[in-house]
Design goal:
Elements lengths: L1 H23 L2 H12 L2 E2 H8 L5 H11 L3 E6 L2 E6 L2 H14 L26
Antiparallel strand pairs: 1-3, 2-3
């Protein structure tokens, strides 16, 4: 019975992870999430930073809101967006480390090569 519960929980977590990755799979949404991982921003600031224009920006923000990845806060005439789920920020940090940090300028060290198997000389003793 315990294994069935674990499988059911794993399936639920897999569905959540899949939805998160699907939302991140669009380059525009990924750029928006990366900016919102840094700070809360309004629509004008997001438009300027990621280069998306209306109505595309609103459409992508709508997808992210429906998926529960961001939330909106109104302050007067402005609407500010921020990340909602800390797991999204963790995923974005991982993606940043993998794709956005500079690669070393020197080639990566080669793995150890096996020494050529040479016939060993018998001991002279």
């Amino acid at each position: 019975m315990q294994a069935e519960l674990d499988l059911a929980q794993m399936q639920q977590q897999a569905q959540q992870a899949s939805r998160l990755m699907q939302a991140c799979a669009h380059p525009g949404r990924l750029l928006l999430l990366c900016q919102l991982a840094l700070e809360e921003l309004n629509v004008g600031e997001l438009e300027q930073r990621v280069g998306l224009h209306q109505p595309s920006l609103s459409q992508q923000l709508g997808v992210l809101r429906r998926e529960g990845l961001i939330r909106a806060r109104r302050a007067g005439q402005q609407v500010y967006y921020q990340l909602q789920d800390p797991r999204t920020a963790e995923l974005l940090r991982s993606l940043y480390r993998i794709f956005c940090t500079p690669m070393p300028t020197s080639p990566l060290p080669a793995g150890r090569k096996r020494e050529e198997a040479a016939p060993k000389k018998p001991d002279q003793n």
